[in-house]
TrEMBL record:
DNA-binding region extent: 124-218
InterPro entries in the cross-refs: CheY-like_superfamily, OmpR/PhoB-type_DNA-bd, Sig_transdc_resp-reg_receiver, WalR-like, WH-like_DNA-bd_sf
Name the record gives this protein: DNA-binding response OmpR family regulator
UniProt-listed GO biological process terms: regulation of DNA-templated transcription
Source organism of the structure: Amaricoccus macauensis
Transcription in keyword set: yes
Length: 219
């Protein structure tokens, strides 16, 4: 899953990136409103964490421009502003959730995961595909009750396919959401990752629709 963390305080920005990365997100960061607006308008994210007190363009103005342009990415708003009227203004502008500063990173991660599940039409943190069970909170998977030894990238691939279980996910979509700018993003890297995951899962779970992409097929 791909997330954008928008925060002008360098320390908080680093903490956000570390917390979200530890929760399985591929995280990009920025610290001003103009760049945030451009990234959110041109890139495809599963989640945006947005501070309201930004230089260049206020976070509320950024959010309003995204929503006016039809961008429906889940947005978790952060702010040091304490008035309830400002919280209402943020939600009315299109925020999906609101977290006042100071906050605990564990709460932010829980809210982030919940927003992503909600956007995909998923209620709980656990998903079942026949003998396969994926726990998004613990970032684990079991097959017939036996824990799977998955690498971080293998888990992220499995979790992304599970999140979008009702559609075939294109290779380009997987490359965009799994790999950072410094990682290999060629199709053969993705094919190798799919092969490694299939070895651990066995047949009948990760399916391929030739020419379209991949999906989880276990009933």
């Amino acid at each position: 899953m791909r997330a954008l963390a928008v925060e002008d305080d360098p320390r908080i920005q680093r903490d956000l990136a570390a917390a979200l990365s530890g929760a399985g997100f591929r995280v990009e960061t920025c610290g001003n409103g103009e760049e945030a607006w451009f990234l959110g308008d041109t890139e495809d994210y599963d989640l945006i964490v947005l501070d309201l007190g930004l230089p260049g363009m206020d976070g509320l103005a950024v959010l309003k421009r995204w929503r006016a342009a039809g961008r429906d990415t889940p947005v978790l708003v952060l702010t040091a502003r304490g008035a309830w009227t400002e919280r209402v203004e943020g939600i009315d502008a299109g925020a999906d959730d609101y977290l006042p500063k100071p906050f605990h990173m564990q709460e932010l991660v829980a809210r982030a995961r919940s927003l992503v599940r909600r956007a995909a039409g998923r209620g709980g943190a656990t998903q079942t595909f026949g003998p396969l069970v994926i726990d998004a909170n613990r970032m684990t998977a079991t097959l017939r009750g036996v824990p799977l030894a998955l690498s971080a990238l293998e888990y992220r691939l499995l979790a992304y396919l599970a999140l979008h279980r009702e559609r075939v996910v294109a290779p380009s979509d997987l490359l965009e959401h799994l790999y950072g700018d410094d990682d290999a993003r060629e199709a053969n890297a993705l094919e190798a990752l799919i092969t490694r995951l299939r070895r651990k899962l066995g047949p009948g779970i990760v399916g391929t629709r030739r020419g379209f992409g991949y999906f989880l097929e276990a009933a």
